[in-house]
Structure prediction request, 89 residues.
Amino acid sequence: MTNTHGRHTLTDAEEAAAQRHKREDEAPGEFQGKKFMTYAEVVRRGRPRTEKPKVRTSIYLSQEVIDKFKATGPGWQTRIDEVLKGTRL
Prediction:
């Protein structure tokens, strides 16, 4: 059967058969005889989450400060964080 847009449409019998097949495919908790993994069972990759995660922000610092910290090598952003934590406000 063809609709007004020239596309094939299903007959009522074909639609019913497709819906039956769809329900059989969607048996809860099974996929080709295997159990679906729940969200909690998914393997976590990467670093473990910290109790106190850092917050992404944007801050303007003088070029002189950035240059001095960058000159100390990798981890310069962490060192800025440590200096700011040690500062009394």
